[in-house]
Specification:
Shape: globular
Strand order of the largest sheet: 2-1-3-10-4-11
CATH architecture of the largest domain: 3-Layer(aba) Sandwich
CATH superfamily of the largest domain: Bordetella uptake gene, domain 1
Helix content: 40-55%
Order of helices and strands: HEHEHEHHHEEHEHEHEHEHEHHEH
Low-confidence stretches: 12-24
Mean pLDDT: 91
Distance between the termini: 33 Å
């Protein structure tokens, strides 16, 4: 089931739950809010965080300060939020892979996002764009698959690290087409993009706003986007579902607002309410659309149920790949 459909299916139950419980926390916030982000400044996650922080600060009358803590597949930021006071004054905006993949990949530490954080709201959803270096000589997913099947040695593809969205999207493509390629993980999306640009690897699923300027300049060739619907930034690029003739195939990802486990339910409900209202604002939706993000603003219950479904989806993939890191 695609993300919008799943949200629709869960909506009625979530609204009943909200109506039954308290939605106001009169004592929150007691001090300025920290919003942690596990990526460097300037990327889609950072832009989303700063857009949300600006709007939330106006609504609650307290500063909301964004802190960038990149590293360990977003676990540095998420772990810091989990260790903070459970009072709703430290939040983190994480890609859903922190919950669905990282607990299976980062197994040696004492942090587990699924155990140590509470999901407040799915703030936005996003996809990845499959791009190739022109030297690969392919201009469609079908041509890439044919080239990979005919190659005497595996073609190489880049990602920003083990278990990140681009890695998962590529592995879903390979699983659907029964072809093999060699994964080359880099330390973040920037070096992964440079690797494709420089021809070190043939291709990679990467963030659309990052690679689109290179597609327009001819330095990269766009083959598909991973979401079920075309990208608003590149409507002529086919979806993976269309390229593979598999209607309904949707390899989208989400940005999830979280806080430390144990945060009082009324505080979670208050933040959730603000998130839903903020993400409905036309100016917010338009700003995020410029970065290939779709504003959502789900309930906490919806966020948890969507994460449970995504964990079930990706767990067999992660185990099949044998992903482990420290």
């Amino acid at each position: 089931m695609t993300f919008p459909r799943l949200l629709g299916a869960l909506g009625s139950a979530a609204m009943i739950a909200l109506a039954a419980g308290p939605v106001h926390a009169q004592s929150w916030p007691t001090k300025p809010i920290r919003l942690l982000v596990g990526s460097p400044p300037g990327g889609p996650s950072d832009i989303t965080a700063r857009t949300f922080a600006d709007q939330l600060g106006k609504r609650i009358g307290q500063p909301v300060v964004v802190e960038n803590r990149p590293g360990a597949g977003n676990n540095l930021a998420a772990g810091a939020a989990a260790r903070a006071d459970a009072d709703g004054t430290t939040l983190v905006l994480s890609p859903d892979t922190v919950l669905t993949v990282n607990p299976l990949v980062y197994t040696t530490g004492d942090f587990n996002a699924a155990r140590d954080l509470v999901n407040i709201s799915v703030i936005a959803s996003f996809s990845q764009m499959l791009v190739c270096n022109p030297s690969a000589g392919v201009r469609s997913v079908a041509e890439l698959v044919a080239k990979a099947k005919a190659a005497s040695s595996p073609l190489m593809y880049a990602s920003g690290g083990p278990g990140v969205p681009g890695h998962l999207a590529t592995e879903m493509l390979l699983e659907q087409t029964k072809v093999r390629m060699e994964h080359v993980p880099y330390r973040g999306p920037a070096p992964a993009t440079q690797a494709v640009l420089g021809g070190e690897v043939a291709c990679g699923f990467l963030a659309t706003p990052t690679v689109l300027p290179h597609v327009k300049s001819g330095r990269l060739v766009a083959l598909a986007v991973s979401s079920e619907s075309p990208s608003a930034l590149a409507p002529d690029v086919p979806t993976l579902a269309k390229a593979l003739n598999q209607p309904g195939l949707d390899v989208s990802f989400r940005l999830v607002l979280q806080a430390a486990k144990g945060t009082p339910a009324p505080v979670v409900a208050e933040i959730e309410k603000h998130a839903a209202e903020i993400m409905k604002q036309p100016e917010v939706r338009e700003r995020l659309k410029n970065y290939d993000l779709t504003a959502v603003g789900s309930s906490s219950a919806q966020a948890q149920q969507v994460m449970n479904a995504e964990m079930k989806r990706w767990e067999p993939v992660v185990k099949r790949l044998g992903l482990k890191t420290e």
